[in-house]
Each structure stands twice: as C-alpha cells, then as structure tokens.
What we know:
Domain RDRP C-terminal head: 538-679
Number of strands: 22
Family: Belongs to the RdRP family.
Distance between the termini: 73 Å
Domain RDRP core: 2-519
Shape: globular
GO molecular function: RNA binding; RNA-directed RNA polymerase activity
Strand content: 15-25%
Enzyme class: transferase
Mean pLDDT: 89
Amino acid sequence: MYKRVINILRDGISIGNKAFKFLAFSSSQLKEHSAWMFAANNKITADDIRNWMGDFFSIRNVAKCAARMGQSFSSSRSSWDVSRNEIEEIDDIWDMKRMYCFSDGVGKISASFATQVAKKCKFRTVPSLYQIRYGGFKGVVAVDIKSSYKLSLRPTMEKFPSSLTGLDILDHSHALPCYLNREIITILSTLGVEDTIFETMQKHQIWHMDAMLNDAAVALDVVQSYSGGHTANEIFEGMLLRGFHPTAEPFLKRMLHCFRASHLTNLRQKARIFVPKGRLLMGCMDETRTLNYGEVFISVSPIRKAYRIVEDGLRFGTVNGINNIDQTVAIVEGRVIVARNPCVHPGDIRVLRAVNVPSLHHLVDCVVFPQKGHRPHPSECSGGDLDGDKYFVSWDARLIPSEVCKPQDYQSESGQELQRPVNTQDIIKHFADFMLNNAVGIISSAHVVHADKSECKAYDPKCLKLAKQCSVAADFAKTGIPAEFPKDLKPTSYPDFMQKTDKPSYKSRKVLGTLFRAVTEPDKEVSLFTNDEAVKFYDKQLEFPGFQKYLREARALRDRYNSKLRDLMHRYDLRTEADIFTGRFQTSSKFFQKDPEEVKQSLLTEMSSLRREARCWLENEVEGKNANMASDEELKKASAWYHVTYYPDHVPDHVGDKYGHLLSFPWVVYDKLARIKQGGRYRSC
C-alpha cells in the first residue's frame, strides 16, 4: 500500500485526455489521506501554482515545508487587499530565557479595519479576533482600539515569504458552547473532581433531551444553548420562536427527535456532556501588559435564549466595545479551568483566575492570556499557541479540581533538515509516511484504557509515557518525527464504554463506564410521514385566503425542490431530511467518517444554496408590486406550498423510496408561514 500510494502521487492519475499531477495538501487533507491533484495546460502547471503561493526554498524540513504549502489550501473567505505600507511588523514577546513565546501566532488589527472586514464578510457583529492568511503570514489578529495600521504582524506569524497581499479570513471569534469529553473527564477525575458531578450533569442533559420533545419552551432554550446559534438550526429554532409546537407540527417533531438522538449518541459514545457554565473560545494575548501570570480576561456575549431553563450563571451588562458601540456582555470573574484538546496529561488542565480589566472590554468571546510569567498559559494547555487554537473554559465551581499538576513540557523537536531544497518527491514520501505512522488515535485510545484500569488514573506511569508520545504524534505532521508506541503499552482488553466488539472487553468501574451505561442507545429511526398523520396534523390556520390559485405552481415547485433534496440526501448517504435541517448527521457512511466536519460544511453549503433558490421562487415572482400586495401574494404562495405538502390528498399511503414523503419544502419560508399562523396578513390594496 505504501509503495502504491507513492507511485500514484508520483506518476499522477489520467482521466480521459487529462493527466492530474500531485499539487499539495492542507492539514485536514493530510489527516484524511487526501490531496490536491492538478491537470496542467499550456499556461499553468502544478509547479507554477506552488511558485505563485510563495517562496519555500529556505524551508529544509520536509514536514514543515508541506505544512506551509498546505496553509494556502485551508478554506477561507476573501476580504480586502492590504498593501504592504498599511501593515507594520512588530516584535514577538518572549520569556527571559527566550524558551517560550507569549505572542506565538498572534498580532493586531485596527478597530476601523476590523469593521470593514466584518462588513465585507457579512458578519452581524464585529469579531474581536480574526484568524487570517495574508501572503505567507498565518495566525490570529486581535482588535487594537489604539492601532493606526490595518494589520500589525509578528515574526511567528510569517511561515514563508510571499508577495501576495490579499487578506483571507479563516475563522473568527464567536460564542460557542463547550462540552466535556472522555479525555477531559479522565483528567478532572484524576485531579479530584467527584464522579457524582459528571453523573449529575449528564442526568440534567438527558432530562433536557426528553423534555424538549413535549415542551416548546424547553426545546427552544435547549436548541439555543446547546448549539450557540448554529446556522443549521435556523429553521427549527425559528419555528419554535414563532409559536409552532413540537407535539402539533410533524416536521418540527422530527427535527427535535434527530437533535435528541444525536446528543444522546454523543453522550454514550464520547461522554460529550454539555457545560452550561462554559464556552469554547479562541485565545489571544493581553497587549496592555495588565494581566499577571495566573490571570485571564474572559468576556462573553449572551447565547440568545428566550427562557432561562439552561442556566449559565452569568450576569450580563453593557460595556463600551469596538468603535464605542455598546455591547451586552458578561465578564467572568473568579476561578476558572482552561484546557485544550487533546487533553491527556494531568497538567493539561490549568486553574486560573478570571479578572475584570476595563482596558480589555472590547475583546469579547475570546480568552485573553497574559504576556507575563515564566511560561505562556496556552503552552501549558497541551502545547497550545495563539494562531487559532480554541480553549475549553468553564467557571463551574463543581469542575474546578482540588489539586493542580505541573504542566507537561511540550517543546517539540525541530525535525530533520535536508542539505538541499525540499522537492515534490520528498513531500509525497512524507504524505505516505504519515499514512503509515500517524498514531494519535491508537495512542489516545491506549491512554483511555490504562487510565481506566489503574487506581492512579491518568497519573499511572503508562499514561504519563503515552501522554508524552501523544504530543509527539500530534506534531508529526509538522516535524516528520513519528511517535513511538511500545508493545508493552498496547492494551490487551478494553472497557465496555469503548464498544470494541472485536476485542476482549471488561465492565469499567470508573466514571466513564458509569456514564456510558446510564445512557440508553437512542432510536435513530424516524418514522415516515403517513396519510393518517396528515389527517391528524394538517393545520387549517396556515390556509391564507386565495392560496388556491397557486396550487398548480406549488405542486411543480414542490416536486422540483424534493428532487434536488433527494439527490442531496442520496449523495451524502443521509437517512432523513431532518438530519440536514438540524446539522446532526446520523450516518454510518465512510464518506462522513473521513472528515466529518469538512463534509458537514460542504453539505450545509449545498443545502443553504437550495434554500436560497427555493425562497427566490416565492419572492422573485411578486417583485414589482407594492409592498402590501407583494406581502399578500407571498403569503398565498407560502400557504399553497404548505397545502401541497401536508394536505391528506397530497400525501400518498406508500412512497417509492426510503426517504418517504418529504416535509421540509414549505418550511424554507417558515417566516411567511409564521405570519399566517399569527394572523399577521396585510390588507390588499
């Protein structure tokens, strides 16, 4: 297999009259064992593209060179062109011995330019942090309200020389919910957090998942809290906000069942327990030098909630933010835990003190670390830095351990350097070596097993050895140095919660085993919509006067939409349309397992495009009429869409394919149906 991969990438692939040659790969592609191939023409070759990206001549470590090339292939949004005289280069900040860099991967962006970028990218608010790519620079820029330069970049952000001046946005700071997982639970348990704490948190989550099926208030609060405004939830969150009830609306009911099944599956398989008093936040550095070692600044925006069923323990107020615009935020104060995945060493979880610093109030939905001390806190968290890493942060007093362990030293080796420039064949060999030697998964699994078997938990000598090798394995893509996995550390049996059905297994007596057995495997089968259900749930309140004149058109558009949706579901091997509209994909498809996040984003992008197209079918047809008439016509059309989907005469007893009778078509315009439901029609002129 090793030689076959090398031969294919070296010789290329011929399709028809085109010969595709190896180009490069991004970091995510390397993990999923995929790469870009390019078919040259008379004007451009793969070498031309690599030369255009930047100057990689001076990088003599093969793995590092491949990673630097790969940064050009990370998915991004284009924003503005920034000339070189609009940026400044500023110094990095090091400890006294120049062993640790406090500013590793982070720079600054002016408040005015941050606002321009937000408008260009169509963000609702101006983010405090942007993860960027600018020529050969990559990292995070934090808003600096005093800066007059568009960008202030540091040496640790420059990965290679490049003359390109386009600014690409890879990510930005925003409110994200946070979850425990097996690794974090194992470390917290090792450090003295009682097992009953995790069991109680899981019970609350299961109660929420059960109650949401029958209580619209619980459903709305849970969806908003657990998802943090995820765009995939827009339709069923909007339906709940506008008064549709899960026991009376079949499509809403199916989406909530899908949402519940996904969360229960993650609880059982990954111990993914929601932490209401926490966030997942991008990190940056305190440029004001106010924070001391052991302190952080954390200011978070509210996750929009209509109710307070899921309590986050925060008190929100107004502060003066970017461009002197008032922002509603909560400033966290007191002891917090900060961690970063993968979290395998007892010292990877840090207990810090969150403090209120007025000069940092403009930095929201991020964790601000100090530039003081003997070592950067991000480095103490599993060897993290500030080039875009996200940190688990919680102010839940129950999760703050009674003891703290000294952090692991994560200074990675630089790797072997060649005495010549790196060529394409070197990079191809590195790709194949990574496929053969990447051991992060098996080392992490072995760590879980040995921590579960030992009374010392993650302090067990075997676990400490594995923690060190896990760090080496995580850096393999950048250093080219493979991790060692001694045979004596290979597990001979596995705890029941790992569900290794093909291996010897035992009943775990630790907290992960208790949590696993407390969750019943959810029923993932969603019943098909039947004619009997249509008779029972057809909502006459959604019949808008005059809708009948659009029925013929509605049937044609319904069939057109359903055909496109079925094709999408077939290509991505999905079971139900509810999977797409909740962003929770219950599928065993290998297509999804390779790189679930990237495939998910691709699917959501396609679905978003289909929704926009369908909305245009309704809205564009009534352009040119005055506002009142247009609104009335839109409501008639929306009502017709609902009628041809839900009225019993349009619901056959038997549908020919596995997807059954599809329901999502009218809910593409859920806001129009909500206006009808609420009696909000306009009078025609």
